[in-house]
Amino acid sequence: MNKYIDGIREFFKQLKIRDILKSLRVRFFLVIAITGLLSSLSVHLMILDSYEDRAVSVKSTEVQTQLKILANHLIMYNYLQNQSSDVINAELDMLANLYDGRVMVINDDLKVVKDTYSISQGKTIISEEVVNCLKTGSKGTMSRYDQANGYIELLTPIVETQLIEEQDVYESRDKNEVVRGVLLTSVSTDTIANTMEILDRRATTIEILIAMVIIVFAALVAYALLRPFDRITAAINDIKEGYTDKPIVGPNYMETEQIIKAFNALLRRMKVLDDSRQEFVSNVSHELKTPITSIKILADSLLAQEDVPNEVYREFMSDIGSEIDREDKIINDLLALVKMDKTSAGLAITEVDVVSLTESVLKRMRPIARKHNIELTLESKRAITAEIDEVKISLLIMNLVENAIKYNKDNGWVRVTLDADHQFFYTTVEDSGMGIPESSLDHIYERFYRVDKSRSREIGGTGLGLSIARNVVIMHRGSIDVKSTLGEGTTFTVKIPLSSVGTK
């Protein structure tokens, strides 16, 4: 026995019913099938109940009509006092046989004067319904259906109508109804039950056919409704396996269109990141290789010459030193960028006087500005204290100011403005430089991107400064905005929260 039970358990385990029920297609099928079957069953039951109520009502009305006629005959033949009338007896028996029932005639003393079953004849019957019918007359007419025992019980008053004459200014006649007895009738509902049984069998047959149609329909609908999801899954699998990198197409439903749009946006983002990674690796390789190539060329030139004059030797060594400095700057910028790219990189938050910090940075930058005949000024509209990472904000300001100096015109100017409100402080770096083309504004934060590559190499730019600046802003949960007019100058505006809440 235990082996049998274990075998059943193992069978159901292998079926993996839970996994099957996780399928959206199976759930669609079950919902449609169960809804259809329940609706069909409900209609089946409603039809049977409706027929039963209608059949009982019609039969009750029909029998009650016959009983009222019979009650009038009983009064006419004075049957309650004399039961010898063959006509009435035959009529009572015919009515009982016609409806496969039983008729009892009860007088106003609650005595059964006639029973078609000859069981209770001569006995006294005490029933609340009979007494109430004797008291209320025509209002006491009643019909009750006993479904469990399969019969309809009817109470019909036997009423005698008398005319009462009253002498007054005008002569008038009133009718007075006197209840002489009650007809207590039981009518069989076997014919109704038999008809209902036939209807039930036919309805069940139709219901089985409908159930089969519903199951097939549910399977087809579930398959058809979820085909777009299958196509999306297949397309995603093709992209995953590397067979294609094209966006998914094929709008079907609003929901699938939203999924397709979201996935295609993700695919575009991944492609941009992949292209950016490849470009970054290529750029890093190129940027690091260029100074080394220059050093090698200079060194080979020295080695190829004999009795090199000291002046030439010193000139070559100076160029080699410059290339080494350039290589060192690229490596340092890359390391700074990688540090800020790490999600684990935190901020050393302290309360900093932003005005003093900016003055300190500009003090270090003024020698470079004087070298290029650039006027460097600072304007602070109020004292500003913020919770920031002092080193990273210094790096941010230094990169923006350095770019403004390097890509400026001769005898130009760079203006740094500080301001704050109750929530943020603002650093604006404005220059009179060459400006940035509108087509390049969306790319200036990309690593190694240069607007003017030839000029950038002349002044020693690495193409990483703005990328580093943007990362610092993002780490502080701030924003950076740029406006530029080609040939007139560029303005960078940085917004940083005064409080460190949410930046740690």
Automatic annotation (TrEMBL):
Pfam family, one: HATPase_c
Transmembrane stretches, start-end: 28-48, 206-226
Domain of life: Bacteria
Entry's EC annotation: 2.7.13.3
Location of the Histidine kinase domain: 283-500
Keyword Phosphoprotein listed: yes
Protein name: histidine kinase
